[in-house]
Amino acid sequence: MLPPRLWASVLCLLWAEGCRCLEATGGSFTADGAVRHLVTALDGVYVATEEKLYQLRRDLSVVRAVNQRGVLTGAGDAAQFSRVAEEDPGNATFGVNVLLAFAENGTLVSCGVTDDECGYCELRALADVSAVLHRERILVGPPGRSGASAAVLVAVDGVERDFYILTAVRQRKGESSRGVCASSTEAVYLHDTDNRHDGGIFSFSGDSSNPLFKSRGDVDFVDAFQLGSAIYLLANVLPSEAGGGRVRLIWLRAKTKKADTLKSLRGASLLVPGQKGGRLAASSVVSAGPASTLWAGVFGADGDPSATQLLLFDVTPDPEIPADKDPDFCSAVTCGRRDGAAKELQPLKVLYRRSAMTSVAATTHGTWMVFFVGTEDGQLIKLSVDQNHRGTCPTVLYRSADDRKAFPGMRLDRADGKHVYAAFDDQVLRVPASTCRTRRTREDCWSAQDPSCVWCHSKKSCTFKDECQNSHWFSFPDDYQKKRISYTVQRHNSGQIRLDVRTHVSADQNARDTFACQFSRRSGELCSREGPFPTFPQCTCVLLNGTLSAEGTSAAVKVRLGPTVFTERIKLTTCSDIRGSPTAALCRRCVETGCGWSEDGCSWATAGATNDGVCETTTTRPTNVSKPEIYSISPGAVSFYGHNRAVLLGSNLGHVTGVRIQIDEDCAPRESPVWNNTGVSLEFHIPAIRGKGTVRACAVLPDGGCHGDAAIAYTSAPSCAAVTPSSTWSSGKRTITLAGSNLDAVDGVSHGHALQEVSLPADRSFRNLTYQTPAAASTRSVFSSDIYLKVANETLACWQSIAYHPDPQFTGFTATRRGDDVRVAVQKSADRLEMTVKEVSASGVYGGEEYPCVTEAKDAGDSADFFVCKIRSAPDVNFRQLKVFYGDKTVTLRNTSHPFALMWLVVLAIPCIVVAVALIYRRQQKQLTVKMNKRMENLELDIRNDIRQGFVDMQTEKANLLEKVGPIPFLDYKDFACRIFFPENEALTASCTAEARGRPKESVPALSELIRDRRFLTCAVHAAEEQKSFTVKDKCAMASLLTVALHGDLSYLTETTEELLKDLMRKNSTAQAKMLLRRTESVVEKLLTNWMSICLYGFLKESVGQHLFLLASALTQQIARGPVDRVTGKALYTLSEDWLLWQAQDFTSLRLKALFAAGGGGEVSEPLEAVALTCDTVEQAKEKILRTFEAKFGFPYNRPPMSVSIELERDGAFVALEEVDASSEAVGEVTMLNTLEHYKVPDGATIKVLSRKDPSASWKDNGDTSGKYFHLIDPDVDENRGKNPERKKLKLKEVHLTKLLSTKVAVHSFVENLFGSVWGPSNRRAPLAVKYFFDFLDRQADEMKISDPDVLHIWKTNSFPLRFWVNILKNPQFVFDLDKSAHLDGCLSVTAQAFMDSFSLSDTQLGKHAPTNKLLYAKDVPKYKEEAKDYFRRIREQQPISRSDFYKFLDEESKKHQNDFNEAAALEELGRMIRRYVPQICEKLEQTGAPAQLREQLRRVQETSDGARKSRGAAADAF
User: Fold this and answer.
1) pTM listed for this prediction
2) Lowest-confidence range among 301-305, 493-497, 514-518, 1005-1009?
3) 406 contacts: CB under 8 Å, gap ≥ 6
4) How many CB atoms lie within 10 A of CB 1419?
5) pLDDT in tens, 988-1012
6) Does an H or E element contain 1217, and which?
7) 214 backbone dihedrals φ, ψ, rounded to 5°
8) How far is CA 1471 from the centre of its chain?
């Protein structure tokens, strides 16, 4: 058996979002929005969406993509539309309504409207759509963005061939354009395509009048095309008071004058069989010849548009119809009152009936017509129709996994006709037009019933006919046949029996010339030698003795066509011996043996007669068997994989032998046997099919008759989106919920470790399914098992997995009596199963009897979890035994003394004794009043509770943060570098990352050349740094601009940095050596920071980035676990004492059931459980609900928090919750924000989440709010001391310092992982840049004869951990796309301080007055110091890197990001900075003995820049 992972790969070929084709496609393309237009040319495909215009190759690979967004400047007809770059903002979008490929002049006509609903047209080059050849503000097509319009390029033959654009525009009487531009609203226009006419390109004016025609009512146009000189328009005339809707066909004759063309209009109405009206949905030309023009359309009913049928019409123009006399349309020249009705055309054939067809494309193969039909549920179906209008069984070429609607504009590949271009929503597919290549045998090739397929003898494969050259071939005939041969048996008056066999195949001429037949039977010869010679496609056998046995004769017919030989077996019998009641079954038996059938029964066949369809009209005479009736079939909807053990309910089912399923009218029905037939119910299998849709089912009797009628709907395959919970215990039977679509079609669920064990769904619906997990082998390790869905006989990958953990370990319990009830706390070892209250139940055992214990709550801890249950009305006994139930397991626990019980008693007794002694002493000394004693008691109780709670937090702190953090939002290199280079200068960031436009200024190349002289550059830096006006900010800006300008030459940047560092080291004396690189006070120090960031970006992203993001996320989640003051941002759980909320009041957790509004009718979603605190404000509770939504579904709620409100369900009604309202409590002039406790929200309350129509202003929008509002920190107001005394309790900051420690414990593993990722394991090499730079520092120390090893260590610490890593650790927003709060910044500063202390050489003695950020990691820092020393030692012992190898690394980094920055812009900014100090730089150059040429170059750069500024100033003055 294949392993599960390999099964998944195999299944992906059949079913998956990413592999949703039924057959392999010839290419696919996904656009940025729904496809609005699809146009093909000989060498490409053109697609228009709302936002983009795409040029694609034939294989759908992208050539060009043009952004349709832009900027409108001006107003009305004078407004101009200009495109903008994709990343730039715009205020308008060009919506394409007309898209035509003008192959004759190599252009693409693109016309439509902009957001002001004014017309806009462009001519673009077909070879390169980014090239605009002409643009104009003119309306061509509909005035808005509505559909129901059509356009076609009209060719007019004459002395010189001319072309027009015909547009047919949707009409609505009384509807006016909402645009600001003037627009015409008639039905049909003819526009010019060039400037040869008076009006110019796109003009619709004629020689003497405007060439257009009008409609009398509301009209939707569906299609327009030209065949020869005839133009065809297809339209839906909508129902009106004058009559019902109808489908109209309009003919025009293409003439030189546009007005003459429109005056030639003639029309006819297309009738739909069995309907008064109808509606055309899609259209396609089938064939055009001198005698007739065939056309096909998809028609729907007026009342039920989904009930569609494909009709074939002869639409040859009728010259007998008078011109310009149509009752619905008229030319503008001769438009008057018209009476009478249009000519009516009846369809030649109803080709196909199916629900929800949306598109059609047609072509021909010899005498065959081939139709490609798209459907609303995402299918592409092929239908072949012969010259007698008989269709083959439809073939599904493509089937989407979901239900994407097929776009009406389907196109055939113009180059070879072997592919179909079909669009489904935003996806364009190139689907093979035939399944030839999937047919492996000659018989399968013929059975495909595809006129385009032949069996090629030389290739031994099924292929297209034009691909089988110089070879014999064999294929399907020119008319539809179900079998390769048919035969008739005739008996002449002479007694001679004649067998005529006709072959239904096609072959090449050479093969037909060798046509021969051979007849044989098992015993003796069958035919005499007097028969006629075989002539393709028929051969004859005259039976030897003129008789046939009563039981029949079995014979074989071998047919030879060149090298192709095939054999068919036939059954011969005496026709008159086939007797019985004239049933359909007897008729089929007669016809299948070559006999003839009539009303009198079976007889010898007649020469030239056919038996096609004769049995379909045979009526079965009444019998003693009652006709079955079908009431229902369950399930009524299945996936296209079918369903096993379906149940049919009805009456008179006792004699039913099978259920016949008719998939399509032209397909052979499928029959399924039945079992468990009780007469009123039976079971059968619903077979799998290739497509989707509704089929009919009936009950089959022994005589072949089929009775009753029921529908079965085939839908898409089931798919999974999420699994909850995502883990289970190894013994199994945990209830799991799958979320997805079509899950009601799932028969069972299995896991990868036990594919043969199938779990039946406990409950299922379209969106959700619940089941119980199978068991796994008892193991102590954790492993992941993939989930698979069993659908009929298929196993589908769910693309979700579930983690198997060891079974939960229940270790003990304690029982406490509370009145009549007993409260039981069941202890379980901590694990990652996240068991809920509903999954655990228990029973107390006493005297052999069990007393149910109802589980009410769960208390999660670091080392143990506690489930609290209650035995109600329990007898007055001491329960010593408890049974715990989970899954299908039972665990028996016995009550034993807990090892920590004594310790707890001692811990609790000490403060009690202290309190008692204090009370006695104070009572004896001061004789306090009873009221004061009570207050003191409460005071001590509060302090004790705070201490105890701190102790509990430290002992039970869980580190299972980060359940779902999603993908890590790494910034790309450009954004990372910009945040390092310009952390507080957005203007320079924008300038240095803007796309280069046009040629750079003349001074830029000269300056670029100048700064690449190292002597000039070092002199310029030193000269600028010596100026008092050159601030630290300027130094950082100069360093970063140099970094950007020299980013393409990092080797030179490295050499320059080294030179400047040497100068800095020489400048500092030995006494100041330890301060080197400690701060950023020079250009080179900032250069070093930038250089390190460039070189270490790859290492940061690959090795450290994940751990840094997890630490930031863990801190954010830990802060949110407890109370957070809404006004100040302080929290109970933090690492920073400055951000500690030590004034927090008592709080409890609340589980809220959140309902989300769905739709506008008041519907709501399934409840989502979220956890909040009683002290949370309304906005905090709302944010937690929205975060829970995002964590569960993987995407944020569709509205921002400010646009969302919440309501509380109370007494059947919903009450709005606001942070500040009329009920808010005020203390003096300070208002307290409303909390959930203020609204008395109970545990388990229902909260509805609504969208605000008008987002209300927040209290934070009122400027300084610190003195106006408060939340958890009481205002300093001496008022209402008697009110709310619980908020007046004494709070001591030192008591809550344990919260810092508990937070440290929670995130400790993340800190450890982060630090460890920086210095890495002992066998990991340091990054190249670190080794290279440390070696550089070693060399400089040797050259400067610095013997103190501490100095070198400090240099390395300041240049690498401090300058780079501390900057990154404190600013994760430099690396990730996240918002860093001030509180998070404070916590990260604590971890960064611990990191920096790890590299310190001194041992700091910490006392009780030491800062908490030092004390918090005091025990960890010694260990980190050892790891840091080992890291520096490993770098020192690492193999040195040569300068050439390192420069090779730098060159690779430059190439990776060579287009990320605008170096010219950086040089311009750098030039402005240098020009401020030109005299000082020249003086410095002269002092250092630099060549005079450098000073001359600098002055030329200055003169060039000054000249450009003066030119711009003069131009501005002239303007």
Assistant:
1) 0.57
2) 301-305
3) 358, 359, 374, 375, 376, 378, 379, 380, 422, 423, 424
4) 8
5) 888 787 776 656 677 788 888 888 8
6) strand 1213-1217
7) -115, 165
8) 47
